[in-house]
Amino acid sequence: MSALSLGLIAALAWGFHDICVRFVSQKAPLMASLLTVLSTGLLFHFAFMIVTDGFHETPANAVVPAILAGVFFLIASLGLYGAFQRGPVRLVAPIIASFPILSVLWAAFTGANVTLVEWLAVLVILCGVTIVAYLSDQSEDDNLPKGITIFFAAIASLGYASTFAFGQMAAEMSHHLPATLITRSTAIVLLICGIVVWKLPFWPGRKSLGLLMLMGLADGVALLCMISAGGLPKAEYAAVAASVFGLITIVLAWGFLKEKMTFPQWVGCAVAFAGIGYLAL
Fold it and tell me: Most CB within 10 Å of its CB: which of 21, 60, 74, 244?
């Protein structure tokens, strides 16, 4: 499976995850919700390793980047939850979706050959996502102060770019399954420490538990796909494809929540996937 395909699977999983974040973040404690999601993802990942006999020795030089990926994954998750808690999607999604620019920059910095046409394809994809997101969610959320929302979204974008850079670096040095296990475990340990220090609740509430566990499965699949791309050619394409998660969130809202999609939004979808189609050639 190509890095681009893994990125699209991650986008689908995170699209479902994020549409749920918008709902759950209004009803359950944020940190407790995130802990449930990450813990469920960890259980999924551990079970996947058992089924696939994925327990491999991790070289010492891969441990540090895997841990750093976990630190940034937690930062990115907190930023995303904080941003979607405030909304609106049309403000948050394009900012978070900009992380592939940083991922491609990192790939170029580390020696990958990124052509001008590939850069243009990345920008086309981001333009498509921005069109769809900007024309969505015209609601009273627009009256909320935008500064803190933009800050959280920018933190999420930087966090995801750093997560994938370090996570894929670890996957190149070792097997991706134990590397991802270290990444996810690091994020959970740090989150538990934060909950204890700030004396926040661990329990998200029974009503939200089932949905949070489904979100955890989706998040587990997405992170596994993204770090698995590390050993493949054009690993940065995974981040580019995953950036359409905001677009998929809106399309899922149209399909399942009956929210409206306008003709210009469908054009934005076509633009974004045309860019992805070019990269897949």
Answer: 244
